[in-house]
Amino acid sequence: MVDYVITPPPVPAVPVRGGGLFPVRRIFCVGRNYAAHAREMGHDPDRDPPFFFTKPADAILTGGAEMPYPAATQDLHHEVELVVALGSGGANVDVADAKALVWGYAAGLDMTRRDLQGEAKKLGRPWDMGKGFDFSAPIGDLVAAADLGRKYGSDGHIVLNVNGEERQEGDIADMIWSIPEVIAALSRLVRLAPGDLIFTGTPEGVAAVKPGDELEGLVSGLPPVKTRIAG
Ligand code: MN
Predict the structure, then answer these.
(1) Confidence of residue 73 (pLDDT cuts 50, 70, 90)
(2) Cα–Cα distance between 3 and 49 in angstroms, integer?
């Protein structure tokens, strides 16, 4: 019997299609991984190497639950992304070995308080409060990589609809850094571990949402990620 001085928090987990739960250890996110989105944010996609930020593991929002409109923002943005879930870990992973770490894939939303992120950029401050707030990572059910085929993740349509209207549209093939390259690069910064999620970046068309909006993110071959922004 361990003497925890408070009740340990529950393990955040993502439902898996067909049953079971995937326990989440950490959430890593890639910045500017589609050229057109890098350009819309005012950056040169040819020059910027991949970079990462994080969200708390308990930022996930599953099962199509409502997302409370977060505090301290007037500019809540959607970013639809392919999410990679790691079933094993490692450091200094080679690109050729990286896909072996992947347990499965999901569609996710990297919800962003764009005004706070913009202020942080301007002042040279951390992005945490723009990106890593409560319920900032809605995610659809995970699908095991074994059910998707070896080539999954190299291309595929990615779309975000708001109230049934298309806002973002792209193809996974347009990622600047491929999934194996992202895993390899991240594994040179931290030792990756089972349970880690990686949000792999968003195509162009990010924009604001308001209370009452219905969001639906679609990634080829995966269950949709859905949420409604609560008032
Ligand atoms: Mn993002």
Answers:
(1) very high
(2) 45
What is the whole-number distance in angstroms between the Cα of residue 94 and the centre of ligand 1?
24
CA 34 – CA 38 distance, rounded (Å)? 6
Dist. CA 6 → ligand 1 center (Å): 34
- Of the pLDDT bands very low, low, confident and very high (cuts 50, 70, 90), residue 156 is very high
Q: What is the DSSP letter of 70?
A: P
pLDDT in tens, 5-45: 999 999 999 999 999 999 999 999 999 999 998 889 888 88
Buried b (16+ CB within 10 A) or exposed e, 41-52: beeeeeeeebee
pLDDT exceeds cutoff 80 at 48: no
CA of 175 to the centre of ligand 1 (A): 12
Asked if residue 63 lies in contact with residue 15, where contact means CB atoms within 8 angstroms, the answer is yes
Tell me the C-alpha distance between 61 and 66, whole Å: 8
Expressed in angstroms and rounded, the spacing between residue 191 Cα and the centre of ligand 1 is: 21
CATH of region 13-230, choose from 3.40.50.1970, 3.90.850.10, 3.40.50.720, 3.50.30.30: 3.90.850.10
The rounded Å distance from CA 65 to ligand 1 centre is 20
Expressed in angstroms and rounded, the spacing between residue 88 Cα and the centre of ligand 1 is 23
CA of 31 to the centre of ligand 1 (A): 6
How much distance in Å is there from the Cα of 205 to the middle of ligand 1? Answer: 12
C-beta neighbour count of 11 within 10 angstroms: 12
214 touches 162 (CB < 8 A): yes
